[in-house]
Amino acid sequence: MSAYAYYSALMSRFKRFAIVIFAGLWLVPQAHSADLHIESGPGQLLGVNWAHFQLEYRAGQPLPGWILSVAGLSLADEQDLGDLVLTCRQAIRPIGGGCIDGRIDWQWDESEPALSASFVHRRESGFHHLDLREEYWRIELQIPENALDSVNARIVLDQVDLSVLPAPLTEALDLDVLYGVLSGEVRLDADQLSARLSLAGAGFDGLEGLVAADGLELELNGQAHLTPMPESFSLSLIQSAGELLFGSLYLPSPEDPLRVEIEARWSEQALDLDRVVLMDSGALELAGTGRLVQGSEGWEAESFRIDSAEIYFPRGWRRWMDGHAAAAGFGDLDTIGRVRGSLDWHADQPLKLEAELFDVTVDDPRGRLALDGVAGQVGWERYGPAAGLSWGGLKLFGFDMKPSSLSLAADAEGVHLQTPLRLPLLDGAVVIDGLVWAPMDESRIGFGFDARIEPLDLAELTRALEWPEFGGQLSGEFPGVMLADEVLSVAGGIDVQAFSGHIQLSDLAIERPFGTLPALSAQVEFSRLDLLELTGAFNFGRMEGQLSGWMHDLRLLDWRPVAMDARIFTHEDVPRRRISQRAVENLSDLGGGGGALLSGTVLRVFEDFPYRRAGLACRLSNNICHIDGVARHDSGGFYIVEGRALPRLDIVGHRRLVDWPQLMGQLAAMVE
Question: Alpha-carbon distance 426 to 179, whole Å?
């Protein structure tokens, strides 16, 4: 059922309620001198039908009374209205004058509980006056005797506990939980409905946790003109406390009262929002209009326009944007600045958006992103300029980049860079030559770019990252980087010139790069790395020679290795190949309990030893490293280092399965 139909049915049921009650009261006999019993089958009076009717009147002195029971109530050609029992313990003489001590019990249907309340009824000056009371609410009705379809009503609510409302009502609202205290007044005067309500300590939960609230303090004032069509209404809502959740939008309790004002016209097929104003002091100010229409699948937005919107950071970010950012993995950002803009959207037309940023600063406490002093304009139309922004500083994953600017334009293919974006970094730069943000299909939007790294000095880079310092250069070409469905994929490769050798990364893909549990997959190849530079940089113990190898099918989860097939090995064509005592000890430990086949006395005599070849392999799966070496040993183990000449030293491993976290702990301890 549509919202309009539900509302119309509710008002119709309310009027039927009044008609049935007063029709029943009208049926009470005027005689009062003797007891009376009347019973009949189906009948009709004043447009009210019934299946069974029974009236008992007691003329007792001094308190006459009566009981009226009507079963199977309905209005002509309309739905059933249930069963009604009116009990009057003290009638007004003559009996037709009313009742000063009555009780009403109305059972609508089997799924809804009975309405039970006390009532007082009087007939005065051509009007029926009915006052229904319960512990926490009161309804006052007034209907002319000659016009039962004209109802004046007043509903007074006094500390109504919402947690005891009938289950069918909360289910109709798609709520699993509803609580709070409701007070106020609702009036129906001919064709005008007005309400003044307050809600305290309220909360709800529904739609499988997509909507929820707690600790709500609300005040609502509203008016509705019921005729002529289209009906119009206005609402003013003030929230002074409480948390709200709507999908990814989480609103913490406001520091100052939040105000919403709406003026609208409601017809059977459309809801026109002629004025919508939201005032969240120090956070967000918004004014706009909109239109909803009744479609085949329910109410749908046809248009929405924000004439003016201004959001102030940090309060505006925390209240209105942090929930969406957290869903994308960027919760709890520190922000400063202000954004002003407008928006115009129609279902059959492209979106039009304009925004201006004033000295906006964004800082991720997890160190992934920081932007300082962003200023400029952002626009979105079918064609034309899309953005012109500049900033005083940018930090990505600990990399400090100097001031830069961004210029975008839109065309039939999507959004593109007007000029290359150059992000200065240390002695080089990251340059984005081409960028496009465009639909991939009807449901997905892709973000792609071509980028390159101008050579960076690795000594400076490792110092900036507080890594062990080593020399070389980092460069790369990325001809096709695509971000879609939370996966960042790189078509090109990253080249690293380090340790007088070459390292290359290919088939690089990062899942959820900014979200929870990011995952990286890649193929890594390294060739002819200088072992003396490598072991010196990581304080592992000295080795001389050259090292090559690979890490195939590498996968990191939350930046920690969880799978790979890796192998490293030295080259026998390098003239000088030697290993120090400390490197011997560390390699023995890394071999999973292997040992050096040379006496401890001899080890202490020599500072280093010649070797023929060295290497390790690790196939990582389920936190277990399956270890191998460069060759089998006669003992059943494997060579980690195979010695040569004198004094000959062999390092042989015997344990082939090693706990990966333990191995990483050992390695960390060795290089400290």
Answer: 58
CA distance 303 to 293: 9
Distance CA 199, CA 584 (A): 75
pLDDT band with cut points at 50, 70 and 90 for residue 148: low
Give how far Cα 672 sits from Cα of 471, 664, 667, Å: 20, 12, 9
DSSP 480-505: EEEEETTEEEESSEEEEEETTEEEEE
Residue-range domain boundaries for the chain: 1-150, 420-498, 499-671
pLDDT mean across residues, the chain: 80
**Residue in 356, 377, 369 with CA at minimum distance from that of residue 328:** 369
Lowest mean pLDDT among 322-336, 483-497, 586-600: 586-600
What is the pTM (predicted TM-score) of this model? 0.63
Q: Tokens 């007044």 label which residue?
A: 185
Integer Cα distance of 428 and 415 in angstroms: 27
* pLDDT at res. 4: 45
For 171-205, how does the pLDDT look when each residue is reduced to its tens digit (9 = 90+)?
Answer: 767 788 899 999 988 888 777 888 999 999 999 99
CA distance 354 to 356: 7
CA atoms of 160 and 182, how far apart (whole Å) = 5
Residue 74: what are its φ and ψ, rounded to 5°?
-165, 160
Report how far residue 531's alpha carbon sits from residue 545's, in angstroms, rounded to the nearest whole number. Answer: 5
Exposed e or buried b for every residue in 320-347, given b needs 16+ CB within 10 A?
Answer: bbbbebbeebbeebebebebebbbbbee
**What would the pLDDT profile of 400-418 be if each residue is shown by its tens digit?**
888 888 888 877 666 778 8
Q: How far apart are CA 210 and CA 203, in angstroms?
A: 14
* Strand 578-580 to 414-417 pairing: unpaired
Compute the chain's Rg from CA coordinates.
Answer: 40
Q: How far apart are CA 455 and CA 472, in angstroms?
A: 10
Any idea what DSSP says for residue 320? I
Q: What is residue 217's predicted lDDT score, i.e. its pLDDT?
A: 95
DSSP state letters, 305-318: EEEEEEEEETHHII
**Contacting residues for 634 by C-beta, under 8 A, at least 6 apart:** none
Cα–Cα dist 119/121, whole Å: 7
User: Rounded CA gap, 290 and 340, in Å?
Assistant: 20
Q: What does the chain come to in residues?
A: 672
What is the percent of the chain with per-residue pLDDT over 90, rounded to a whole number?
24
Segments in 311-410 forming alpha helices (H) = 315-316, 322-327
What does the alpha-carbon distance between residue 388 and residue 378 come to, in Å, rounded to a whole number?
6
Instruction: Report residue 115: phi and psi, to 5°.
Output: -85, 125
Phi, psi of 326 (to 5 degrees): -65, -35
Q: Check whether 37 has a pLDDT greater than 60.
A: yes
Q: How many CB atoms lie within 10 A of CB 242?
A: 22
Residue 234 one-letter amino acid: S
Distance CA 648, CA 68 (A): 114
| Three-state secondary structure call for residue 6 | helix
Quick one: tokens of 234? 């206005």
Instruction: Express as a percent the part of the chain with pLDDT over 70.
Output: 82
Which tokens hold the place of 540?
């592992």
Which range (247-256, 286-295, 507-516) has the least confidence?
507-516
